[in-house]
Every structure is written in C-alpha cells, then in structure tokens.
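Handout, section B. The chain below has 227 residues.
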Amino acid sequence: MIEELLPDTVVCVEALGDDGTEPVPLYPEEEALVARAVDKRRREFALVRGCARRAMEKLAVPAQPVLPGERGAPHWPAGLVGSMTHCDGYGAAALARAADLASLGIDAEPHAALPEGVLEAVALPGEQDRLRRLDAERPDVRWDRLLFSAKESVYKAWFPLTRKWLDFSEADIDLIAEAGDGPPHGRFRAALLVPGPVVDGTRLDAFEGRWTVQHGLLATAVTVPHA
C-alpha cells in the first residue's frame, strides 16, 4: 500500500500482524523499551521493527536495533533515511540511502472518522473549509483522518532535517483526489508556515506527498528530494 506512494529509490516493507507470522525477536536494547508494555504494544513494536530489518537487508545494510532518538524519531544506521508506522495490526518501514533522498515520512491510519474534537485541534480554518468541500464531493474518503495522517507524514519528514518541533498549525495541507481506476488516491501539498529546512543550500517552503485508501486503512507518504 505505502510502497505505491514512494519513488523507486525507497525500499518499503509492509506487514500485517494477523498474517500468522511470528514477530521478530527483539534486540536487548529494543526489548528494554517494551519490557513493561502490554502484549498489543509489544507486537506492534516488533512488527514494525521486523519491517525495518528487512528493508535494511534489501539495501545491503546489516540489520540492527532501531531505537528512538530525539523526540522519539527512529535512529537509523549512518547513510540511511527512513520512517516507520503502525496501526491496527499493520506495520511498515520505508528506507532510502541518504544520497538518494534528503528525508521521508510515512503514516498509516484506520480509515475512520477522527474522534470528536480532534479535527478542530489539528486543522487550520482554511483546511477545515477545504475538507467540507471534499466531503461533499467524495464522501467515500474520511478526509479528516487523511488530513491528520498527512500532517503526521509531514512531521516525520520535517524533524530529521530541522531537529525542531512542527506544530499541526504550522503546515497548511491541500489534499487533492486524482481520477482513475482502483482505490481512492491522490496527492497533497503542505505549505510550511514557518521557515522550512535548508536542503542542499535551498530553503524549502513546502513538502509534497501522496495518499491512498485501501483495505480499511489510509496511508500517506512524503519524500524530500535533494535539490
């Protein structure tokens, strides 16, 4: 699902937690992070790290622990950029060589409405206006949850480049549906409302991403190319 949203330079591994596959054994450093966690949290943690290890192997990088760094962002092996996500028994990891991409972010969410009050907390007034129009045009897509997911992907791509927090109100996202057969899909543009990261000497003022809805889930992905 997420693989379809990413360029060929990215290796993406996805997995379902109910496919009968046993979660990978955790490294001691990873095990320590979930030693007191409930079983559901442990399985999700192991599921997505299994995806990350397989992605590393596809890039000919020895599998190794994936530990949270500053603000919980995954710490990747030198020379790699990447992102992980998990929800409702689904997990995915996307990795690329730092020479091929400056950064990337992925997110998956259940294709269901956001809990009451969340949209108002994360969406700008202009975004809410656009969502109302999209709801009328394409009621088959949960646009509120899609906006939330897009903001998550934007943040995951933003943080490794800046090492700074990005508030929900600091990126204005325009979601666009594309015509065609198959599941609902499209693209989005995130206008940064604060000074953007500098990539190869150029300051960025926006991120570009793609989205899809499949199998009761929605997914978003942002890639930041080199200049």
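Note. The chain has five helices and twelve strands. Compare this with the example in section A.
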